[in-house]
Amino acid sequence: MHYREYPPHPALAAHVDCVWAAQAPAWAHTHRVLPDNCLDILWQDSGQPGFAVGMMRSAILVTSERPVRTMAVRFKPGMAGPFLAMPLHALTDQRAEIDLLWGRSDAGRLGDALWNSAAPERARLALIERELLRRLRLDSAAGNGSAALVQQALRALEASAGALRVEQLAVQLQVSRQHLAAQFRTHVGLSPKLYARICRFRRATAALGASAGTDWARLAQECGYFDQSHLIHDFQEFAGSAPERFHFSN
């Protein structure tokens, strides 16, 4: 399977993690997509409208029956709001066609431009960036106070790899836990606690080496888990399998 990420246009760098392209193999193919605390919008050459995929709370299996081509954008956590103009909890574990979010005219124009062009991969992705830049300029709510609070919280959670407790985070930000949770629900789509758990899980999957002799108890400690059983629980919830099985299947 072909998959490649590209850095975004500099003017989008505060909001966009990357733009990416993929092509499934010619044979039937299934791959697992893990929760990563990001939201993506995808366009595929299948004749269907583009669609946004919200924050995920567990892994999903994606099956391709033919060599589908995909062009997409991946937003940084909490930064998709200006481009979707909706509370992000409505997209959690869901997908929504982009013509419902952007309007049929704008969505159709971009889809036609992507798939009727003979331009190279990166040039097609630039068409997506151009539309995002237009929408960013039109968004009057970008950078409001609530979003700024959430960004502070996200930076703190990422810096601690999810180890910072939500109670401590609320104290640092001088807000109540309830207010913080409400802002996360709107601007991120997950609770602060679940976001932190996925941060820890991502750290654990990234730390897995190529060898068969992983010290799971040590890995759990290094990644901020209470103990090995806590690590196992999160792998089962987020990856759908125990850590060892996940390790050897990847």
Automatic annotation (TrEMBL):
The species this protein was found in: Duganella sacchari
PROSITE patterns tied to this protein: HTH_ARAC_FAMILY_1, HTH_ARAC_FAMILY_2
Keywords: DNA-binding, Transcription, Transcription regulation
Domain HTH araC/xylS-type: residue ranges: 151-249
A GO molecular function held by the record: DNA-binding transcription factor activity
The keyword Transcription is annotated on this UniProt entry: yes
Name of the protein this chain belongs to: Helix-turn-helix domain-containing protein
Record keyword Transcription regulation present: yes
Domain of life: Bacteria
